[in-house]
Design a protein that fits this description.
Bound molecules: ligand 2P0
Structural class: alpha+beta
Largest sheet: 8 strands, mixed
Number of helices: 8
Radius of gyration: 19 Å
Strand content: 25-35%
Order of helices and strands: EEEEEEHEHHEEEHHHHEEHEE
Shape: globular
Helix content: 25-40%
Number of strands: 14
Low-confidence stretches: none
Distance between the termini: 15 Å
């Protein structure tokens, strides 16, 4: 019997976003990106290869996934089997510790945890760089969740060179990310569809590539210098320029809802009133607010009044992949 292995990986929030693939099969991105791994939201995944199984069996939060819903998971298992020289099917059981109905993306933590658990369960002992490449094959943003703290996903040009590199694993800087849960429902346009539409139809896509190159070159020294204002200004502008690719696609679409705009206005008001903070958004209406620890009480109080206190979640820099004792 092969061992059951459990891995834990945390979600990450991109400060310089990934929005578009150069290779849709290998998930090679058009540009590099940079994120912060978060401590509050994570996935635990257990994998065991079992000769008694006649198909892969994938359970997420106690629900068995249909073959269609488990397609990306089985793709990663196939890659692991290929590397390990196995033909055995696997039992995968995953628990998302992203607050119920938070509407926050769990694919980053999910595919990072899957890569960690499946590879070891198959007897492979991959480096963290190779784990990031494996996680990438499930979902692009998962590449970065192998490492903790600030992480760069270097776009590269092929399967070997497209990988995560830790930029600052130990974050000794009192910063926080406040996640505002504005709409718990599943997004209508998946990131995968949305980014592909931006690449192929937005006339601004070439400009986006230049934006990312500039933002990466300026955000790295700003992080190293712990220059909160500069990091905040870069991440806010980068997020809005990513969303400009959705508005400029054909047909146009948007992940904003009315509350997203209200929350962004509140961030600007808080800033004017002296509580420095900056917003970012991903492929959904929830707004995430980058701030300093000292300003958390004022900022969380304001959003709790505006929305509801159970819709205001506070996260800090989090760790990279871990393996748990069964
Ligand atoms: C990011 N997002 O950098 C960007 C910003 C959302 C907005 O990566 O197709 O689920 O599986 O590679 O990683 C979300 O897209 O897409 C994402 P696939 P993924 O975090």
């Amino acid at each position: 019997m092969m061992p059951a292995i459990t891995a834990r990986a945390h979600t990450n929030i991109a400060l310089v976003k990934y929005w578009g693939k150069a290779d849709t099969d290998l998930i090679i991105p058009q540009t590099s990106s940079l994120s912060l791994t978060l401590d509050q939201f994570y996935t635990d995944t257990q994998v065991q290869f079992d000769p008694a199984l006649t198909a892969d069996q994938v359970t997420v939060n106690q629900t068995v996934l249909s073959p269609d819903a488990s397609r990306k998971v089985r793709h990663v298992l196939d890659l692991v089997r290929h590397q390990a020289g196995l033909t055995t099917f696997a039992r995968v059981s995953s628990q998302n510790h992203v607050p119920m109905a938070a509407g926050l993306a769990s694919s980053a933590s999910a595919f990072a945890a899957l890569a960690g658990a499946a590879s070891r369960a198959a007897g492979l002992n991959l480096s963290r760089t190779d784990l990031s490449r494996l996680a990438r094959r499930g979902s692009g943003s998962a590449t970065r969740s192998i490492f903790g703290g600030f992480v760069e996903w270097q776009a590269g040009h092929d399967d070997a060179s497209s990988k995560a590199v830790p930029f600052m694993e130990q974050v000794d800087w009192p910063i926080a990310m406040v996640a505002l849960v504005l709409d718990p429902h599943q997004k209508k346009i998946s990131s995968r569809q949305g980014m592909q539409s931006s690449v192929t139809t937005s006339p601004y896509y070439a400009a986006w590539r230049d934006v990312v190159a500039t933002d990466l070159a300026t955000i790295k020294p700003a992080i190293q210098a712990q220059d909160f204002q500069q990091v905040g200004e870069i991440l806010e502008a980068n997020a809005m320029r990513m969303h400009a690719l959705t508005l400029s696609a054909n047909p146009p679409y948007s992940y904003f809802n009315g509350d997203s705009l209200v929350a962004m206005q509140t961030v600007r008001e808080l800033r004017e009133a002296g509580s420095a903070c900056y917003y970012t958004m991903d492929a959904g209406p929830n707004v995430k607010v980058f701030c300093q620890e000292a300003d958390l009480p004022v900022i969380t109080h304001r959003f709790a009044q505006q929305f509801r206190d159970d819709r205001v979640l506070v996260a800090h820099p989090g760790p990279g992949i871990q393996w748990l004792e069964n």
